[in-house]
Amino acid sequence: MAGHSKWANIKHRKEKTDAQKGKMFTKLGRELAIAVKEGGPDPESNSKLKDAIAKAKAGNMPNDNIMRSIKKAAGDMDADNFEEISYEGYGPGGVAIIVEAMTDNRNRTAGDIRHHFDKYGGNLGQTGCVSFMFDKKGVILIERTENTDEDTLIMEVIEAGAEDFDAQNEYFEILTDPRNFSVVREALEKKGYEFMEADVEMVPQTTTELTDPKHVEQMNKLIDNLEDLDDVQNVYHNWEEDE
Fold it and tell me: Which of these CATH numbers, 1.20.1250.10, 1.10.10.200, 1.10.490.10, 3.20.20.70, describes 3-80?
C-alpha cells in the first residue's frame, strides 16, 4: 500500500537521524514518557509502552536510554503536561500532509507548523481535510538480507495475522490492522526478526507526483523543517518521491 516510494522515505530519515540522533532520541523518549504516564512503567501490562519501546529500538535508541526514559517518566510528572495533537494540510503541488505532535503549548506548536506551511508553498487546513486520504495501519519493515528467507517470512507473517506483505528490493513491508499491530510485532520479534521500523502510521491510499522542480525543493524543505520542530513527532504525506 505504501509502495515503492517507502525506501526513499527511509533513506531520507536515516540520513537525517544520523546527523541528529540526539533530537530523535528526545522525541522517542517523549513517546515513552507519555506511554508510561498513561499505563505505567511495566511493558508487559502496558501495550502502548511495549509498542513505544519497539519503535525506539527500531530507531536505534540504546537500551540504556530507553530504560532511563522509562524510569524518569515513572517518577516525573512533567509528561502530564504534554498532549498529542494532529495537524493537516496541503504541501506544494497539492501533496496531502499530516503532522503529529506532542506539545505542552498548542499555540506555539500551531504557529510554528503554520509558519513552515506558509513559507514553503503549503496551506495548513482544518482537521479532517486530508486524513480521509490515509488509512491508519501498523507498519513493520524488515531489511532484506541474504539471511532472510522470503518464503519463510511470508508464512510467519500470515501466521501472525498480518493484513498485507510487500517484498521490495531493499526491505519487506508488513501491514497490520492497528488493533493487531502489537500481536504481529511480538510474534515476529519472537522469531528473531529485527525491525527497521515498527509503528502505527498513517499510510496514504494514493500518491501524488511532483513534476515541478520548485515544488520538489519546497516539499523537501517543508518536511525537513517540520521534522526539525521539537514538538513534531511524525510527518506523513502522500508524495511519490523518486528513489
Answer: 1.10.10.200
